[in-house]
Write the structure tokens for this entry.
Amino acid sequence: MNPDRTARPAEPSSAIHLKGRTIPLAAGESVLEGLERAGIEAPSGCRAGTCCKCMLQGEDPPAMSQRSLRPTLRAQGFFLACQAYPIGTLELSSGEAPEPIDTVIQSVEAVAPDVARILLRPEDSFAFRPGQYLDVLHPSGALRSYSIASLPSDQVLELHVRRIANGLVSSWIHEQNEGQRVQIRGPFGQCFHVADDEQKRLLLVGAGTGLAPLLGIARDALEQGHKGSIKLVHGGLQPDRLYMRPQLSELAETWPNLEVEHCVLREATEQEHEGPLDQVAIRLAGSLENTRAFLCGDAEIVRLLQRSLFLAGISSAEMFADPFSPASP
Ligand SMILES: Cc1cc2nc3c(=O)[nH]c(=O)nc-3n(C[C@H](O)[C@H](O)[C@H](O)COP(=O)(O)OP(=O)(O)OC[C@H]3O[C@@H](n4cnc5c(N)ncnc54)[C@H](O)[C@@H]3O)c2cc1C
């Protein structure tokens, strides 16, 4: 029971709607209390908006029930059920995994010795935020995640897939041809741009195919009118591992607030900075004041970036990361 409820004015006809069932809420009753009264199992903990165990997803939840959540969660309709006192009917998400949909391969283009840029045309509606990821379904039933580099307005899903030696799904998708069908499921993930402060500096750092979500996030921010500086640092072992440089240069020429930098661990030419990606990124960023960071790619490198950027002054609330962890066997 919320301690404030006696002070809360009675709200007209509040209800929640879940899987075809409407549950009316009594005056001053939270969504969590309403679910429990209706006999619907709902996880909960502190009931004070702190532990977040009662987090649910819905359509336009009350702003008060979202205020302690990260902006990406707010943008996806997540809220704390113990803090939610809706006015009108709040539609709750069923929490079920999205159904797979068919896509048709538009192209598979080699952009580096081991990386293909794959364009998929969805045959059904597929709403996503650039930078989120989807699961590709292999005919064996295996699922692998790949990040989305394109914008919804592109009408195709752009993936950058690195072929892993003996890798089941990455090798298979590299060998697919134009016109073949691939099933996908999603989208998933919290690593995307939210236009809550157009002056914020954005620092995007990624290794290898970590470029895919970063490209999507950078383009999305620019298209949404972001005014603050956007610095994208793409890292790789050596220069030939850095791909799509012409496209990145073209993007940086089009948008004056976007800067693209390249970083390698060895054999740098005058086109790249040499050194560990975390140190180079921090040096190139200059000031980290009012900065939001997006970190993507190899899981170990992402962990290193998170640690180094935190120590350099970026709070964990302003860090959005997608570590590309291998699928469990
Ligand atoms: C959120 C998320 C987003 C991702 N986005 C992308 C993306 O945009 N582009 C992309 O290329 N990949 C991405 N990945 C990784 C991808 O999901 C697969 O793990 C990868 O393609 C390998 O799958 P596979 O079936 O080819 O290899 P598997 O059959 O799963 O593995 C074969 C062998 O290779 C090893 N292995 C797997 N991955 C690696 C690796 N990276 N380095 C060395 N050995 C490895 C495995 O441990 C295993 O021994 C992402 C992963 C996650 C979790």
